[in-house]
Amino acid sequence: MTTAAPEKTLDRIRKYLAIAEHPNTGPEEAETFRERAYNLMAKHGIERAHLAAAGQITDELSSWALVIDKTHQAERIHLLASIVGPKTCRAVQWKVNGVTYVMVSGYQSDLEVVKMLFASLSLQMAKEVANVKPSGRKSLSTARKSFMAGFASSVFEKLRQANKAATAEADSTNTGRSTELVLRDRQAAVDAYYKSKVPATGAVKSRPIGDPDAFLAGREAGERADLGGGARLGSSGQRAISA
After folding, report:
1. Of all residues in the chain, what percent are helix, strand and coil, respectively (each to 5)?
2. Tens of pLDDT along 209-233?
3. CA atoms within 13 A on the CB side of 47
């Protein structure tokens, strides 16, 4: 048995994202490869969940900590939250000596995908937001924050849709436990593990959308997106993050 996500599958996902991101790839071809990446990620996650539930592989619970720099910090944390939820993980943020950390907890196979998506989508969002123009009398800062909120919202919905399609496909061929029950048990195990690591947290307050036009533009950018650390946890200032 192995705890690592199959490298061949991850390589295929990386290749799909690379083709979709290439400057010489046309819009229609890019969309085709993006969809392949989304669907493969979702199918991969559900397959691993079923195999782990049946005892055929070992997919251990673990945590991944990273530093979130100050550039679009709140918006990047929101983007991470939009990935974490659909991938059956939990996350908490905290600050020590002015440095903001986030710890993501979940099964190792899911964490591999979260890392891949966050790295890719952070770059895509930063590239897209550089071209944002404010509407009316809105400030550039407000427009950019609204755009990134829309981007993260779209990513969240696309990941959820891919999960739904993969679940239906798995249940059409699987004769064992339903995927819903397998994922419910998996989420319960992640929640228990997370609480053992982070027994008490506050909640991150959502921010109002200051520029609706930029928010919608961000959602459109998210529709085009390629979905395809060792910090110590402090004892105070912890905030659970969610989309």
Report:
1. 60, 10, 30
2. 455 455 456 556 655 554 443 333 3
3. 10
Q: In whole angstroms, how far apart are CA 164 and each of 18, 68, 159, 183, 233? A: 25, 30, 9, 12, 34
SS3 (DSSP) at 12? helix
Q: Cα separation of 92 and 242, whole Å?
A: 9
Q: What are phi and psi of 205, to 5 degrees?
A: -80, 135
**Please, what's the b/e burial string for 222-233 (b: 16 or more CB within 10 A of its CB; e: otherwise)?**
beebbbbeeeee
Residue type, 85: G
Give the lowest-confidence range in 4-8, 37-41, 61-65, 86-90.
4-8
- Strands 90-96, 99-107: pairing kind: antiparallel
Across the chain, what does the average pLDDT equal?
Answer: 80
Distance CA 44, CA 111 (A): 12
Other Cβ atoms within 10 Å of 35 Cβ, number:
16
- Residue 66: CB atoms within 10 Å: 18
Question: Which of 162, 190, 164 has the alpha carbon at shortest distance from 60?
Answer: 190
> Distance between CA 127 and CA 225 in Å, rounded?
11
Per the document, the length of the chain is 243
